[in-house]
Amino acid sequence: MHQHNMTRADLRKQIRARRKQLSDAFQQDASARLIRQLCHLPELETSHHVAVYLSTDGELSTRELIEWLWQQGKSTYLPVIHPFSTGQLLFLRYTPDTAMVQNRYGIAEPQLNKQLILPTRQLDLIFTPLVGFDASGHRLGMGGGYYDRTLVPWFKNRSGAKPIGLAHTCQFVEQLPIESWDVPLPKIVTPDKIWDWESNRLSQGQMM
């Protein structure tokens, strides 16, 4: 497969198809193994406010992760499409009793309630969905740019919530076609391993 010649749209289609073929049993096993990996994530240990998302379209299931975060006593938040700031996300507190509605993409999200909004900069971690990722930590999103906009403060000056991608192993490609504005994620967690580019970049920086 010549990934270099494929457009982002082609790759998106191909990886989504690959992901959708995974069986329920595989998905269940993958989500249990993901939680085992996350037990070794130092950032999670020190985080109180954690944003996650409801999996859809063959994504690695986050249902078990959310329950586990609740058990760990973490305040958990879900993204909600901003009602009037185009392309922006809000993050609302999510508990077992949160009233849910469907957004324009048919994905469940908490019903808009000002009391439940936490300013994004007050989140500690944002578990970030992705369609594909490559060996440098670049992320291929769904194409809406919601998370790219949300993560600008972190990418620009490492302020605010730290993004960590979640993905199935089959979503890996050697090299994504990237744009000049694409910024790689510091870490991506799959059921098999924690991909950590941050410490590589730090050690390279110190050697210079």
From TrEMBL:
Leader peptide range in chain numbering: none
Please give the SUPFAM superfamilies that the UniProt record associates with this protein. Answer: NagB/RpiA/CoA transferase-like
Reading the lineage from the top rank, the first entry is Bacteria
- One GO MF term: 5-formyltetrahydrofolate cyclo-ligase activity
Report the cofactors: Mg(2+)
Going by the UniProt record, its keywords in alphabetical order are: ATP-binding, Ligase, Magnesium, Metal-binding, Nucleotide-binding
Q: Which is an annotated Pfam family here?
A: 5-FTHF_cyc-lig
EC number in record: 6.3.3.2
Query: What chemistry does it catalyse, as a reaction equation?
Result: (6S)-5-formyl-5,6,7,8-tetrahydrofolate + ATP = (6R)-5,10-methenyltetrahydrofolate + ADP + phosphate
Keyword Ligase included in the entry's annotation: yes
Q: Which family does it belong to?
A: Belongs to the 5-formyltetrahydrofolate cyclo-ligase family.
Q: What is this protein called?
A: 5-formyltetrahydrofolate cyclo-ligase
Q: Which organism is it from?
A: Vibrio rhizosphaerae
